[in-house]
Amino acid sequence: MQTVSVAGTHLVLRPSGAAFLPQHGALLVADAHVGKALSFRKLGVPVPEATTGQTLDALSADLRATGASRLVFLGDFLHAARSQSAGLHDALRAWRRAHPALVMTLVRGNHDDRAGDPPADLGIDCVDEPLPMGPFALKHHPDPVPGAYVLAGHWHPCVRLRGRAHERLRLPCFWLGEGVGILPAYGAFTGMHPVDPRPGDRVFAIADAVVREVPPGAR
Predict the structure, then answer these.
(1) Which of 27, 52, 68, 152 lies 20 to 30 Å (CA to CA) from residue 98?
(2) Quick check: pTM over 0.85?
């Protein structure tokens, strides 16, 4: 993991793609897309199974490692209305029972608008963006907010690294710009979108359970 200073506050970048704000005890997760694989299978597309379990296990591991008392989803918690199945809800309820004291908030994203809010008994407070937290504006869409540093998702960012023989390696990354920072997609079954950093932007790639800053000359 990497600890960086953003807006005068420590931000811990974790290999899972989550970010932790120690000052607020808050774990931030973007683009979990829970139920995406199920949604694809309902459409007849053969995709991996057990991805929801992998995502929930990763969340539990991050909560244990950080001691976070609050979990904030930066949009796209559920992938689609087709994800709202009894089996998925049962899995989410079982996971919630393992974390009864955890305060959870969903900052609605574009997929949440279509999928609908999660079941009320999960105890997830659903709000529209932005959600203020200290010097930050927590959002799904990475658009600037005057007077605040935005932490968001939506892009599923990855960085392309130069390799031998013109090979290009794509790795999920945190992309921290002047006024907006974008977290990688957290879900176990999500795509990626290459970033185009501007001068002064910082990019932190995730590889082999390690978060490392990528110098401009390597991307």
Answers:
(1) 152
(2) yes
